[in-house]
């Protein structure tokens, strides 16, 4: 019984150590900012499906024309927000404050004009005149073009990425798989999250690597799941430092 208990405890300990063990390789990929347009791509696909299913009823003069206009407004709103994320950097505190302030002002103005249309008749008439509409082909083409760009990005990053191993940092680049090697021990890592919306979309940020004996830092922008990557690298380098210590026993 004692032997069985001991073997069971050793097995549980081994399983725990395997779970805590850092991965053998960590891949770091810097993506272009176009990938943050995936919400617009998803909305375009949803609207395209709706317009295709609705058919003639969503055409101008059909009984679902108003719904098609609402879907167009939603698409344009998401597209506009996505372009704003690409165009500007939003620091954490400032961005959230401005976002909620802008949302509150917009909702307040909309409610005021909705229930009191005679206050500013010119603006009320302009808002009532907003009736954007597009057929399913436009949404399918937009989603198709954006999808092809995403596929091109997915292919291109396979020819330019970084790999962190226990004792070295590797840069894979080029169609012929050119390789650059840097020493990983004593590697300094800086994590920067300068845009809260980009972090919310893909948990991405900037990773700055400082290899030993290298005059310039390596800057990787738009690295997805940056917090998890940073923790994995820290665990890997920490395990390496423990392994190279002399055994005093």
UniProtKB/TrEMBL annotation:
> This protein is called what?
Uncharacterized protein
Sorted UniProt keywords: Membrane, Transmembrane, Transmembrane helix
Q: Where exactly are the transmembrane stretches of this chain?
A: 35-55, 67-88, 95-113, 138-157
């Amino acid at each position: 019984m004692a032997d069985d208990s001991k073997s069971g405890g050793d097995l549980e300990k081994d399983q725990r150590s395997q779970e805590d063990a850092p991965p053998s390789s960590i891949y770091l990929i810097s993506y272009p900012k176009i990938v943050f347009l995936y919400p617009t791509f998803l909305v375009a696909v949803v609207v395209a499906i709706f317009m295709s299913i609705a058919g003639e009823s969503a055409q101008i003069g059909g009984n679902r024309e108003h719904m098609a206009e609402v879907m167009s407004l939603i698409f344009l709103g998401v597209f506009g927000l996505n372009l704003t994320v690409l165009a500007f950097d939003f620091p954490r505190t400032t961005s959230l404050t401005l976002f909620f302030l802008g949302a509150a002002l917009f909702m307040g103005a909309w409610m005021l004009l909705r229930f009191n249309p005679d206050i500013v008749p010119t603006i009320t008439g302009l808002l009532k005149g907003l009736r954007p509409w597009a057929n399913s082909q436009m949404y399918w083409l937009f989603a198709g073009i954006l999808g092809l760009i995403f596929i091109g990005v997915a292919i291109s990053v396979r020819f330019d990425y970084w790999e962190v191993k226990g004792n070295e940092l590797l840069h894979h680049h080029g169609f012929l798989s050119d390789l650059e090697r840097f020493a990983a021990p004593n590697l300094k890592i800086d994590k920067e999250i300068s845009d809260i919306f980009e972090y919310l979309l893909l948990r991405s940020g900037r990773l700055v690597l400082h290899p030993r004996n290298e005059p310039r830092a390596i800057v990787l922008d738009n690295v997805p799941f940056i917090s998890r990557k940073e923790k994995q690298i820290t665990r890997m380098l920490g395990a390496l430092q423990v392994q190279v210590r002399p055994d005093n026993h």
